[in-house]
Amino acid sequence: MSAPAADTLRRQGAPDLLVAYAHAVAALPIGPDGRRIRRNAAGRLLAAHPQLAAWMRRPTPARLADLKRTGAWPFRSWCFAEGHLMPDLDLLLAKTPGDLYRQWAGRHPGDVQQITEVAQQFGWSANWTRDVSRGGLALICLTAGKALSQLGDGDFAAFAQALA
Fold first, then answer.
1. Is 11 exposed, middle or buried (0-12, 13-18, 19+ CB in 10 A)?
2. Are residues 76 and 102 in the same domain?
3. Which of 29, 89, 111, 124 satisfies CB 3.0 to 4.6 Å to 119 for a cystine?
4. Do 68 and 95 touch, CB atoms closer than 8 A?
5. Residues 4, 80: one domain?
6. Does residue 8 form part of some domain?
7. Is residue 90 domain-resident?
8. CA distances from 7 to 12, 26, 132, 164 (A)
9. With contact defined as beta carbons under 8 Å apart, do 140 and 115 qualify?
10. 66-106: per-residue pLDDT in tens?
11. Could you tell me which of 88, 100, 34, 97 has the C-alpha nearest to residue 63?
């Protein structure tokens, strides 16, 4: 674990969000270079756009360019999965999810299990079940900022409208 990196960031006065991300990155099963690359990418994006809410209001092409330029998509995925940011559907569908859906599913295993059980009752294929229980459910829950049990008709209507 690279707790010293998070401690160094804290001593340097880095934003709390970057320090928290450094702790999360330290726990990833990747090498030290991979951890450093992720921390540095997050730092570049936060240096250019310290106000996350303002960054989220930028046009999707501009945000995608920022993510490509800084390499910070893993950081944004972590922010979305942890609830630090609520993503919009345009951004999520314009960029391949990478490990975002896996991260979300890991934080909401009960929601995934509930959908999986329903899928089994309906005899859905394993591929369809995986796509719906992780990808589809993650998209709806992330854009609504809610867990499965909190979703209501309005959330599904808003999601359908955003898709249209």
1. exposed
2. no
3. 124
4. no
5. yes
6. yes
7. no
8. 9, 12, 39, 46
9. no
10. 999 999 999 999 999 898 999 999 998 887 777 788 888 98
11. 88
pTM as predicted: 0.82
Over residues 41-62, the mean pLDDT reads: 94
In angstroms, rounded to a whole number, what is the distance separating the alpha carbons of residues 92 and 84? 15
- Domain range for 133 is 96-164
Q: Which token pair is 153?
A: 């008709």
- 9 and 80 part of one domain: yes
Q: How far is CA 71 from CA 23, 31, 43, in A?
A: 19, 17, 10
| Domain stops at, among 85, 117, 141 | 85
Beta carbons within 8 Å of 144's beta carbon, 6+ residues apart: 150, 151, 155, 158, 159
Q: Which of 75, 70, 89 is nearest to 25 (CA)?
A: 75
User: Shortest CA distance to 69 belongs to which of 78, 58, 61, 77?
Assistant: 61
Length of the chain: 164
